[in-house]
Amino acid sequence: MFLFSVCMIGLIWLMILPFNGGSDETMRYLIPQYIYNHGSLPNGFDSAVADSKWGTSYGFTPILSYIVSACFMKIASLFSTDFKVLLHAARMANLLWFAGTVYFAIKISKVLFQGIYRWMFLVLSCCLPQLIFLSSYVNCDSLAIFSTVVIIYAWLTGGKNNWDIGSRVTLAIGVSACLMSYYNAYGFVLASMIYYVATSEMFSKDKNVRRREWGKFFFVVFIIFLLCGWWFIRNGILYHGDFFGLSSSNYSGELHAINGYKPSQRWDAYKAGVSVFSMLFVHFWVFQTYCSFIGVFGYMAYWLPVYYYLIYAAIYLIGFIGLILGIKKSKKNKQLPSGKEKWFHISMIGAMIIPIVISIIFSYFDDFQAQGRYCMPMLIPLMYYLTWGIRYVIERSVHSKRKQYQYAAILIIVLIVTLIGAIAQIGYPMCFAKIS
Fold first, then answer.
1. What's the Cα-to-Cα distance from 36 to each of 42, 69, 183, 216, 402, rounded to whole Å?
2. 146-191: per-residue pLDDT in tens?
3. Is the whole-model pTM more than 0.85?
4. Between vectors from CA 206 to CA 211 and to CA 171, what angle results, nearest 5°?
5. Which of 7, 168, 324, 432 is paired with 26 by a 20 to 30 Å CA distance?
6. How many angstroms separate the most distant Cα atoms in the chain?
7. What's the CA gap between 336 and 111, in Å, rounded?
């Protein structure tokens, strides 16, 4: 019922949001539209998918989500070729990734938490207004977030089951989806490599064990190569060794963008001589990123009421305080054998920090983009630690013999977050409906 409810809210957004109601949707939609019309993948330099203003396209970067969007468009075209029908069909790919995110978040919650704390984790994670908004228009962010929950679930099952075939296949699928989504989620690829090596017996003194474990590792690598290696090989061939397509995208922009939009002409803090500290605080990078992580819609144009952000800030602050105070007294997760839990936390913290660092570097050296969606891959690790911190504060603040008061405190937080999410997700689509 929880999965159904949040997906229905996402569907409302999807149906009501006007075309280009989300960041760069006009430019992004050109990719699935091209695949739908031609039955083939575009070259990033192709004028059919390039934006005339920016002089480049999203055809250079991974386009798995757009391929799935084109498949939905083909299915929808059997009934109608109306523009809105095809647009809504293309957006269904993002709703699919969102549904997968919620599904795996539920499975993760069963492992990491018990009782009512499961619901606090789920509500904090899955009812975030910005997360649901990302499921309503054509983008790659939803796929990136989906890949992270699949990867985390694979870490948990792999650590518990000594990397049986099911957990290895799950990890390979998650990493492949991550590689084919958005570069800001690539921290999870690095974290997965570290976690897998640290929790397997690849360096065992027993030669037979070592051989078996290396065989398991290369099995995972082989599946990843089959699922997404073709894309990077294709890029390398098309763009003369530029496997990630980033240099080629910048080169295209430099050649074809109008004045003021060329990569060399874009404002960034480094060229302006602004310090990192000044960019983060004086130029409000931290403030804008935080708010748009919670929920800022359209082209950073439709903000929630200020007290929504303040309520979330208070909840997050409680979680961080609890985390700091209780870090030495943390209870071990019985689902993970001793020794593996340490590497789970190292991987989770690393995967949480890397998207923030990438976003800061990009804003400082390339293009100032203080958008929370670039940090969204850290969602599940962040909410895991916040939930743990809130639990610590509540359990230490309310006597253990009065469990009903502990439950009441948790229920209040759950209801507040749910209510904020419901008001934001129902009220703002109505605003967009009036605009369109």
1. 11, 9, 25, 38, 60
2. 999 999 999 999 988 889 999 999 999 999 999 999 999 999 999 9
3. yes
4. 45
5. 7
6. 70
7. 9
Residue appearing with tokens 């404002």? 267
- What tokens does 218 get? 């290369």
| Sequence-distant (≥ 6) Cβ neighbours of residue 188 within 8 angstroms | 147, 148, 151, 174, 175, 178, 351, 377
pLDDT (average), residues 356-366: 92
**Terminus-to-terminus CA distance in the chain, angstroms?**
31
What Cα–Cα distance (Å) separates residue 225 from each residue in 180, 219, 221, 233, 430?
Answer: 12, 10, 6, 10, 44
Residue whose tokens read 């789970």: 344
Residue 295 φ then ψ, to 5°: 165, 105
Token pair for 135: 């499921």
Structure tokens that stand for 131 in this block = 């997360």
Contact between residue 156 and residue 336 where contact means Cβ atoms under 8 Å apart: yes
Burial class (CB in 10 A: 0-12, 13-18, 19+), 373: buried
Strand partners, 303: 296
CA-nearest of 375, 368, 330, 374 to 353 is 375
Note the pLDDT tens digit of each residue in 372-383: 999 999 999 999
Phi and psi at 296, nearest 5°, equal: -135, 125
The sign one gets for the Cα dihedral 171, 70, 254, 243 is positive
Cα separation, 362 vs 368, in Å, equals 7
Q: Which residues pair with residue 70 across a beta bridge?
A: none
